[in-house]
Specification:
The structure holds 2 protein chains of 2 kinds. By secondary structure, chain A is of the alpha+beta class. Chain A has 12 helices and 22 strands. In chain A, the strands form 5 sheets. An 8-stranded antiparallel beta sheet of chain A has the order 5-6-7-8-17-12-11-10, covered by helices on one side. In chain A, strands 1, 2, 3, 4, 9, 13 and 16 form a 7-stranded antiparallel beta sheet that branches. A 3-stranded antiparallel beta sheet of chain A has the order 20-21-22. The longest helix of chain A is centred in the middle third of the chain and has 21 residues. The relative contact order of chain A is 0.09. Classes of the chains: A alpha+beta, B alpha+beta.
């Protein structure tokens, strides 16, 4: 299962490695995934450890082309070739070249300290520490210290072939760490990387062949952006290349792209406290797909407790005493920059939030039932029903769901059918309760389905990113019996996104995979 | 202490309190304007989205004010009206007023939007309210606001009224102002402003009467002052400022920080530097238990595998880097000046292995190939001499200063071993210390100075660093001690009217611009060398250096470094000034300079 990443859109990287190669201004740059290391002088997040890679022929920089698979990048220039792959066990990149010299140039770095050591050049640069070790090849490196700049001269590592060959290892290791010895050949490392990618890809939902490009792009993006947290679990980061951010509700959406219990479980428990509380929806999807069948009891219990904790938080912190409905206190709790519900002013009883919580309580009810605790199961089922009833009583006007200000009772301003400008385009929170499907009275579901169909795709808002819930609404539409229309909307959305050639947002990508799997 | 009509204002010194992240200061460019910030994000005031302009409001309009601050509170006045801030150690401050209201307006000093900012990507102008993510009137009363990485703020009006204005543009908040209004009948307002990171307000007990809080703050400061020995006559007022600076930079455990430490600045470099914790121990001779805790505090973060201590720590974690093994110098100073019995046996048992591991970190991970525990450092920061000319030939460098610190650390490790009943180990450490001292004398003293060695060659340098091994005191041969004292006291080189310059005035490399120790007169080096000379028996010279430096602090404030001249003596050319305000040694008041002053004023000057 080979995938060919387009490096102008996504870096060459892999799960479990900090090394990345990114394309900038026609050249490849070595960089490191962002890490949240504190520093004395705070800096804006950006790709760390940037070193431009040049090909030298007879000491002169020479244009080169490059291509990539999920496991190897190949640089070609007149007279030679270089290949690069990850060696995760060594926290290194392995480089082999023939007939050309290579240069790694930190020309845009600042505050670098570097040192020529017996092992090779060591460069402390932008939150990372490279160690260049040449098995074959002659290394030239100037580590002069410049007093006035409190640092070294611009680091430039030149590696010339010996006997026409370069074999180079670029570690990324903390100080005071012995360099691990290479246990595998370049080819073995490349094969390991391919195998790891293939194993990961097998966990992704199955799709028809016509979606193979979408599936490949998203799978690679999910793999690349898989990040191990301190609790030892992987989550999907928003963009490891330049940010340390990973959202909890993003994990719930990402889990929809996986068909195995373990990966979905890991994502949901990596960042369990989600706002908006989408974990119930994600778990209900797992239940519907039979993913919990045969799952280890300990993991099921952990998931159950995580959901209980989330429910408790919303009950204690975002629900007035004795009230059936919960509210958002802050815009960001919706997952959006400019949610429609907040036109009523904060805090707001919002239909999408309460729909998510209905599913959360249902999931809890099912877990409790499976654990043989009928009493608790009934209690959660009743809570789900009471919330749904309250939604219909309080937030449904016969035509649409709306949000209400908790204190003033003021309703949200209805969504404009044709927003004047995407800048103020509210998002489709009112339609999101369609995810409740047949739990809703038929006339309500029909009306919501009609509205979702009529509204079509939300206008793209570059500031707020894609509407992550839009694919969820189409999936719900399909489940509500509107399969044909759901399919048309799904195809339209996938076409729109893939027309841009590559999916770079791993979370929205995951939502699209789920959409393709469920609605088409 | 600080104020419009006082000797010092709050332009360089922040107004703060022990155990709080909240600070207030006067803006350099808009004199008369106070600003309120919180240091926990690590942002410098020159690039943050989280500062509040403080306005005094009378009849609906902002009016000019004067101010006065002491350890109890900071009071702004306009005629008979006033507003007053008192910071607690329970993560909130109180603000009250009479005859006037207060307005806190959120501002951003970020010169450019962060690269990842959606504003930048979409052509939006950053707004002063950009840090605000949401604001929420809680059902239980009071208003909570979320500021993302800056945490949350909750405001509760205790008397008078409070309201806020936070217009939302459909994309982000344009601005935010908090308005505290006096009661129409009494003319008084009183409110609490809490800061916290997660969902929950830090337990604050109860809102005490404002006067009680002010009195408690003063009492807390007075209690803290009792840690310190008296200073030499004539320096009492400066000592009050210095101890206040230390007190107000002492932060409580939070995030990665496990026990109280002294941060360097509130507004600039918001870190607790590893070696500076031991500096803080040195003048605490009236509370040796606390002094010992200060020396030991960084061992809480010691790397299990290597024995390494972090270079600095912040709320968010350890900051990369390595700082000198200064703990031995500080402990040896205390043992010499305060007696040999303040570290109890249990403490010796607990800390001996940690000290031993720390020494061995240096002799293992910074070992040179010269034998005898001789080390070589990989960066100037590992010596404490960041841009000193003895490092002009690069790295790795065998630096006699770092090794001199190691000698004292080995001796103190021996002392702890002895205190723990481990006589054999104690002797072994003493042997190692002696052997290293001999190496420093035999291999690094060239007859005139201690020379750093790079790739087998001595570095030609006129840095003051070449004399810092004087900290070995009487372990050094008398002829070396005499030579060091003679060189340092000779006119025209290092000794200036305000203390020892860090580079000889005859050196072509000397600079007073953006530099730390390549010419400027800097607190730690003056303290270390004067203490060293004192230990070597050169009391008169030590006191003279200390007097000159302390007089400068008395005059200019608790600043880290000073340019000794407005021109370069070697060439006569005018010297560039440091930019201001900036995080350089020549600008902010800071805890490091304060503790150096206290050590010199209380221990070196008294003789």
């Amino acid at each position: 299962m080979t995938y060919k990443p387009k490096l102008t859109a996504a870096p060459f990287g892999r799960r479990d490695s900090r090394h990345m190669l990114i394309s900038r201004e026609g050249a490849l740059w070595l960089s490191l995934a962002a890490e949240g290391a504190p520093s004395m002088i705070p800096t804006a997040p950006r790709p760390a450890g940037l070193l431009e890679i040049s090909v030298l022929v007879k000491g002169v920089p020479t244009p080169y082309t490059y291509s990539a698979t999920e496991s190897v990048v190949e640089l070609k220039a007149p007279g030679g070739v270089a290949r690069i792959t990850h060696d995760c066990a060594m926290r290194a990149l392995r480089v082999e070249a023939e007939g050309i010299s290579l240069r790694f140039d930190g020309k845009i770095a600042a505050g670098v300290s570097s040192l020529n050591t017996a092992d090779g050049p060591v460069i402390n640069i932008g939150g990372g520490r490279y160690v260049f070790v040449s098995k074959r090849g002659k290394v030239k490196f100037d580590d002069s210290w410049v007093l006035a700049s409190f640092g070294s001269v611009t680091p430039v590592v030149d590696v010339e072939p010996v006997g026409g060959i370069i074999e180079l290892t670029i570690y990324e290791l903390p100080g005071d760490t012995a360099l691990p010895a290479a246990a595998k050949t370049f080819e073995q490392c490349a094969a390991d990387n391919s195998a790891e990618y293939s194993a990961f890809a097998k966990k992704i939902v199955r799709l028809p062949e016509k979606f193979s490009k979408l599936r490949g792009d998203v799978t690679y993006s999910l793999w690349l952006n898989s990040k191990k947290l301190e609790n030892g679990r992987y989550c999907i980061a928003e963009n490891r290349s330049s940010s340390t951010a990973a959202s909890a509700h993003g994990q719930a959406i990402a889990s929809l792209a996986f068909r195995d219990f373990d990966t979905a479980f890991e994502l949901l428990t990596s960042l369990p406290e989600s706002s908006p509380p989408l974990h119930g929806l994600a778990v209900m999807r797992m239940i519907d797909d039979g993913m919990l069948d045969g799952a280890p009891v300990a993991k099921l219990r952990e998931l159950y407790f995580a959901l209980e904790k989330t429910a408790k938080w919303w009950r204690e912190n975002r629900t007035l005493p004795g009230a059936a409905l919960s509210y958002y206190a802050y815009r960001f709790e919706t997952g959006h920059w400019n949610p429609a519900s907040f036109t009523a002013g904060a805090p707001v009883l919002a239909p999408d939030l309460n729909a998510y919580l209905v599913l959360l309580y249902e999931a809890l009810s099912q877990f409790a039932a499976n654990f043989g605790d009928a009493e608790t199961s009934d209690k959660y089922a009743a809570a789900a029903k009471a919330r749904l009833d309250a939604m219909l009583d309080t937030l449904w006007d016969g035509e649409r769901f709306f949000a209400v200000n908790v204190y003033s009772g003021e309703r949200e301003i209805p969504k404009l059918s044709k927003p004047e400008s995407s800048r103020y385009a509210p998002l489709g929170q009112s339609e999101t309760p369609v995810i409740l499907g047949e739990r809703l009275p038929k006339h309500v579901l029909s009306k919501l389905a009609e509205t979702v169909i009529e509204a079509g795709a939300p206008e793209t808002n570059p500031r707020s990113g894609p509407d992550l819930e839009y694919p969820l609404r189409i999936i719900a539409l399909a489940a509500a019996g509107e399969r044909k229309k759901a399919k048309a909307l799904a195809l339209g959305e996938i076409e729109r996104v893939t027309a841009e050639n590559v999916v770079t947002d791993p979370i929205y990508g995951a939502a699209l995979l789920a959409l393709a799997a469920k609605a088409i | 202490m600080f104020g419009t009509y006082e000797k010092f204002d709050l332009v360089r010194a922040p107004y703060a309190r022990r155990g709080s992240v909240i600070y207030l200061y006067e803006d350099f460019n808009k004199r008369g304007l106070l600003r309120l910030g919180m240091h926990k994000s690590g942002d410098m005031i020159s690039g943050t989205d989280f500062l509040f302009d403080v306005a005094m409001i009378k009849n609906g309009a902002a009016v000019p004010y004067t101010y006065f601050a002491d350890a109890g509170s900071l009071k702004l006045s306009s005629g008979d009206a006033y507003i007053e801030f008192a910071i607690t150690d329970r993560r909130h401050l109180r603000v009250r007023g009479r005859g006037a209201g207060a307005r806190l307006t959120l501002i951003s000093t970020n010169p450019l939007p962060p690269a990842q900012s959606p504003e930048a990507e979409n052509g939006f102008e950053p707004t002063p309210g950009r840090a605000l993510r949401g604001i929420y009137s809680k059902p239980s009363g009071g208003v909570e606001a979320d500021f993302g990485k800056y945490g949350r703020v909750f405001i509760k009006a205790l008397a008078g009224a409070f309201h806020y204005e936070a217009p939302y543009s459909g994309y982000h908040y344009g601005s935010l102002s908090y308005n505290f209004l006096p009661d129409v009948v009494t003319g008084v307002f009183d409110a609490a402003l809490h800061e916290y990171d997660g969902e929950d307000i830090y337990p604050y007990g109860r809102y005490e009467p404002f006067e009680q809080l002010v009195a408690d703050n003063i009492a807390d400061f007075e209690s803290f002052k009792s840690n310190y020995s008296p200073v030499a006559h004539g320096y009492e007022e400066t000592a009050n400022y210095a101890v206040w600076t230390i007190w107000s930079h002492r932060v409580d455990p939070r995030g990665y920080i496990k026990s109280p430490v002294m941060i360097l600045h509130h507004q600039w470099a918001i870190v607790a530097a590893s070696w500076q914790q031991s500096y803080n121990a040195m003048p605490m001779r009236r509370n040796l238990k606390e002094a010992w805790r200060q020396i030991c505090t960084m061992f809480e973060y010691q790397d299990e595998r290597t024995g390494r201590l972090p270079g600095m720590i912040a709320y968010s974690g350890a900051v990369a880097g390595l700082q000198p093994p200064f703990q031995g110098f500080a402990l040896e100073f205390l043992l010499r000046n305060a007696g040999d019995d303040f570290v109890p046996r249990e403490e010796c048992k607990k800390m001996y292995p940690k000290f031993a591991k720390w020494v061995n970190y240096w002799t293992t991970y910074r070992a040179s190939n010269l034998g005898g525990d001789v080390t070589e450092i990989q960066s100037p920061h590992e010596s404490g001499w960041d841009d000193a000319s003895n490092f002009k030939d690069g790295f790795p460098a065998s630096d006699p200063n770092t090794m001199a610190f190691l000698v004292l650390l080995m001796e103190c490790t021996a002392r702890l071993a002895r205190g723990a009943g481990m006589r054999k180990e104690s002797m072994e450490w003493l042997v190692r210390a002696d052997r290293m001292t001999k190496k420093i004398v035999d291999d690094f003293w060239d007859g005139e100075k201690f020379a750093t060695n790079v790739k087998g060659q001595p570095v030609d340098s006129m840095s003051l660093a070449c004399y810092q091994p004087i900290i070995l005191g009487k372990r050094l041969p008398k002829k070396i001690i005499d030579k060091v004292a003679e060189r340092l006291m000779a006119p025209g080189e290092w000794l200036t009217e305000i203390g020892l310059a860090s580079e000889s005035m005859k050196s072509p490399l000397v600079t007073f611009g953006i530099s730390f120790v390549c010419g400027r007169v800097v607190a730690p080096q003056n303290m270390i060398i004067s203490v060293g000379l004192q230990a070597a028996g050169k009391h008169k010279e030590a006191a003279e250096i200390a007097r000159r430096y302390c007089d400068q602090v008395k005059k200019e404030g608790v600043i880290l470094g000073f340019a000794p001249y407005d021109h370069f003596p070697l060439t006569g050319e005018p010297a560039p000034d440091q930019p201001r305000p900036f995080a350089t040694d020549g600008w902010p008041w800071n805890s490091w300079s304060a503790n150096c002053f206290m050590t010199m004023a209380s221990s070196v000057l008294t003789e």
